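call fold target=O-acetyltransferase OatA
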Amino acid sequence: MPEPVKYRHDLDGLRGIAIAFVVIFHVFVGKVSGGVDVFLLLSGYFFLGSQLRYAYNPGALLNPWWPLWRTIRRLVPALIVVLLSTVIAISLLTPELKQSDIGDQLLASLGYFQNWELIWQGQSYGAASASISPLQHLWSMSVQGQFYIMAIVFALLIALLNRKRTHNVRIVAGIPLVIATAASMFYAFTASDSHVNYYSTWSRMWELTLGAVLLLFCSNLRLPTWLRHTIVILGLIMVLSTGLLFDGATQFPGPAALYPLGGAALIILGGNGKGWLGSAPMRYLGRIAYPLYLWHWPMLIVLTAYLNQERPEVWLGIVVIIASLALAHITHIWIEVPFQQHARRPAVGDKRIRQGFRSIFSTTGSLRGLAAIIIATLCSTAFLIPQEWAKEVEALSNYRLDPRVYPGAMALEGARVPQAEPKPDPYLLAETVGLAWTKGCMSWANQNPNELPYDKKPKDCTFGDKDAEVTAYLVGGSHAEQWMAALDTLGKEHHFKVIPFVRQSCPAFVEELDGVFSQSCQQFNSVVMERIAEDQPDFVVSNSTRPLLELNRFIDEVPASYPTFWEYLERLDIPFVGLRDNPWFILPGGKGKKVSQCYDKTGDMIECGKPENEFYAADNPADEYLVNDNQINIDTSQWLCEDGFCPPVIGNIYVYRDGNHLSDDYVRSAAPLLWEAMAPLMKELNLA
């Protein structure tokens, strides 16, 4: 049986100071402090230790429900309150954060798989800013929750082994934990993808199991007093200095994580439950550590976005810390403590279920039952919110603006522009994608490049006049796909069908000559080229220019790879329609600027737009390439800019859905202009 261990109040204080430093570094420094790593270590120390002690109880009950229920009562109510408070704050203050990926993260946080959701979304851990998810920090709660389930199962297996004969805990439990720790360490220390490594349960596991290993093998070491004091001070210095010495977002949980965890281990080895860390203020900080961690990040992000600060200013950080401490205290007193399971864990023969059922009819039991119903209702509400956000976006995708009030691109041709608020909703607009993308006809960058979405559902992925004899292929990346809204409209009006063979971040080419496009993109293009040669469509539409941001070239040009595609079409005698690219609005650091949201917040055309010469070359770079009779070279810059400036709103319509893609509504408004530009080819096809 595990040796009895005196409760360590100093470790409560260590937990409190670890989370306090997480908050401070999040708010003022914008770096990872290592406090979460220490928090995970202590979670393994306390939780798995308690599970193993119960497993060696002769009357241990082999029912996983009890420890799971106890854990749910301790963690979930506070989490639900914070999540719903965050959703309400987003709805009232920062509608730009009503995004589908944040909705998915809400569900992932409730289901304790937020760390994996962030991996699937490709979300690297970032410093606090107006564009970061307010639920990003809950990855660690998910890792912790997943570990708790595994710890419960592991301890029950140990209890099962001890049914007939008690085994040495350091052999039966300790050796598997040492092996698991070593395996997870190896995985984390050798990982090549720091983004996945940071969030992965398997790379974080060693930080948790190490806590249990320290409990089993080191909890009763006898050290001289002077040595204990020395290593505790050294350990505390290591824990507190981590954020100043390491970039935890890229280095943890790799070898660098040994520094803060080594410091925490020294405190575990040398502490005796007393001292500064065991003082009343530090123990209190440890008690509110969990709700403090829950509250501080969403409050910081929502207020930063609401106040239009790119990074939180010092005064805002101070306000957030004070408010987070107050909310953590309230949450601890009114939610955590009342919901905690204070009774001892049941043993074989206990009639806890029957007693619990009877207690419902007491005053205290009825109040707890009512509170449980409220929490369950709140949880159900949280599950429905992402669906409502998705419905709003879908409704926007199906909505059509009145061209008499919202002439869009036709305003540049002299159409009257009445006084009206720009549309559509710029915050929902940021969540929309192009028409083919919406229908699932766009190949994602992480999908099999040998598969064409059209082949799986040809009916859904045929646009324009589905029964027409004339066929157009739309090929390339998302900047080609964004013109589907106009092509679909024109196809229905003039009787040609449009079939998309498009892939995210993958322009059309036969040979990659720029050294910037992925191997999967090259493979996808080879499949598309074979399909074009086999099907012989009546004409093909794609982009003719692009900025090579990957090479720090921000003016539109013809990448060396593009003409290989045009020459290929020429050899096949297939007409080509080339569309000059639209402006890209890129913020320092590489993120796209939310152009439409910028204008909604500031009303400033200049601040939210872009001078034409900051993106467009003086002449259309494709002019010297697309010179044959069956090649239509369209300069779309004249539909997006006027008098040397590219504004965020034209003809009462928001031009951009994000920082570099056109909105469907604006593209539709440009359909007559696109048809006019394509007229020579359309006459040859007897469509005009």
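return ok
The mean pLDDT is 88. The radius of gyration is 30 Å.
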